[in-house]
Design goal:
heterodimer; A: mainly beta; 7-stranded mixed sheet; 54% strand; globular; B: 107 residues; mainly beta
Chain lengths: 117, 107
């Protein structure tokens, strides 16, 4: 069955970097793009962008350019989200989700990133 | 960017009742690229409806979606205890955006 398993919670200091992983199984990884979505505390879902898994071409939503980088390693069916120069406002749960004809049909369990001094 | 506004913000209902959730877009959404998700505390969002009215795999038929243009509706015909959750609408025709969510809570 399709599964997306994300890396565990992270506690980081402001200015640090974090890399969240999303390991896919149960399907051909390169046949489906990967979506990234953020949910800050008490807020709704916010689309961050997506990444084609055959060519590795990223598309970033407004507000997620510069410090946010999507990448992948097809040899291990894993997508990554790296955030640099972390700020307190980056504290959130980050989700990966498989895109099936542009709809997010399977989601990872989420990774909590806490930025605090 | 297309802004999605969900109403109401919260809905207090009893099991067995009908729930009607609305989502209005700031501009017309073409090609039926519209979805609804359910999110329970501590769980990942679950796709319920895509393409405005198609149920995702394993979604019971008490969930239905409708609408076109700028106005969309998710209907839960008879609420089951497991349906109390937050529901998000999403458009994926022009980039992607989510609504702010409607919480369906037990009355």
């Amino acid at each position: 069955q399709v599964q997306l398993v994300q890396s565990g919670s992270e506690l980081k200091k402001p200015g640090a970097s974090v890399k969240v992983s999303c390991k896919a199984s149960g399907y051909t990884f390169t046949n489906y793009a990967m979506n990234w979505v953020r949910q800050a505390p008490g807020q709704g879902l916010e689309w961050m962008g997506w990444l084609t898994t055959d060519t590795g071409n990223p598309t970033y939503a407004q507000g997620f350019t510069g410090r946010f980088v999507f990448s992948l390693d097809t040899s291990v069916s894993t997508a990554y989200l790296q955030i640099s120069s972390l700020e307190a406002e980056d504290t959130a749960v980050y989700y990966c989700a498989r895109l099936n004809y542009y709809v997010a049909d399977y989601w990872g369990q989420g990774t909590l990133v806490t930025v605090s001094s | 960017e297309i802004v999605l506004t969900q109403s109401p913000g919260a809905l207090s209902l009893s099991p067995g009742e009908r729930a009607t959730l609305s989502c209005r877009a700031s501009q017309s959404i073409s090609s039926r690229y519209f979805a609804w998700y359910q999110r329970k505390p501590g769980q990942a969002p679950r796709l319920l409806i895509y393409g405005v009215s198609s149920r995702a795999n394993g979604i019971p038929d008490r969930f239905s979606g409708s609408g076109s243009g700028t106005d969309f509706t998710l209907t839960i015909s008879r609420l089951e205890p497991e349906d109390f959750a937050v529901y998000y609408c999403q458009q994926y025709g022009s980039s992607q955006t989510f609504g702010q969510g409607t919480k369906v809570e037990v009355k």
